[in-house]
Amino acid sequence: MFFDIGPLELIALVILAILVFGPEKLPKVIQDTARFIRKVREFSDSARDDIRRELGPEFKDFDFEDLNPKNFARKHLLENEDLGLKEIRNGFDLRQELAEVTDAVNGREIAPGGSAASGTGTAAPSPGGSGVDLHKPGQAPRTDPPPYDADAT
After folding, report:
1. Residue 139 domain-assigned (yes or no)
2. Residue 112 lies in a domain
3. Structural domains of the chain, count
4. What is the pLDDT of residues 42-84, one digit of tens each?
5. How far, in Å, CA of 79 to CA of 68, rounded?
6. Residue 89 has what pLDDT?
7. Per DSSP, which regions of the chain are E strands?
8. What proportion of the chain, given as a percentage, has pLDDT over 90?
9. Which residue stretches belong to region Disordered (predicted)?
10. For residues 133 and 106, is the Cβ–Cβ distance under 8 A?
11. pLDDT at 64
């Protein structure tokens, strides 16, 4: 409630308040300050209730602390382990899609099982071992690595 005010700083503020307002006016200043804080708190509670009432029943458990981006991210990302990311990740088979695109570029037909069916013969695996044929059907596969350009890297 006092943010980073320690006990010595609090004593210093009390002494300063006594010196500024005097012992006669200090109780009245404290009462006025407490009344002001109470009214501000009532006003904020009323505004929060009005917002909840206007949002409707689907937002009845809406938490205003979620409006802070850090709290929102912590609540929805860090505390919720069941995000369905595994299902999303498993839904994408990038190797198969890459093979299909490569086969379409090379002009081969794609069989219903997802593998390419070449009309001129069998497809040789690529040197990398990924199973995707990147050379044209009439050419022999490259056995030597591509040239290395030190300036390009």
Report:
1. no
2. no
3. 1
4. 999 999 888 888 888 877 777 777 778 887 777 777 665 555 6
5. 16
6. 67
7. 109-110, 116-117
8. 19
9. 105-153
10. yes
11. 76
Q: Are 141 and 135 in contact (CB under 8 A)?
A: yes
Smallest Cα–Cα separation from 119: which of 106, 102, 100?
A: 106
Q: Are 114 and 96 in contact (CB under 8 A)?
A: yes
Residue whose tokens read 């802070």: 68
Residue 20 has pLDDT above 70, yes or no: yes
Residue 33, helix vs strand vs coil: helix
What 3-state class would DSSP assign to 135? coil
Q: For the chain, give the percent of residues with pLDDT over 70.
A: 66
Within-domain flag for 95: no
The residue behind tokens 């990147």 is 134
| Position 24 in a domain | yes
Chain centre distance of CA 75: 11
Cα separation, 58 vs 66, in Å, equals 16
Domain that holds residue 34: 7-87
Query: What is the spatial distance between Cα 114 and Cα 116, in angstroms, rounded to a whole number?
Result: 7
Q: Are 131 and 125 in contact (CB under 8 A)?
A: yes
* Assigned token pair, 29: 């200043």
> Under DSSP, is residue 32 helix (H, G, I), strand (E, B) or coil?
helix
Q: Hey, is 108 helix, strand or coil?
A: coil
Distance, CA of 102 to CA of 96 (rounded, Å): 10
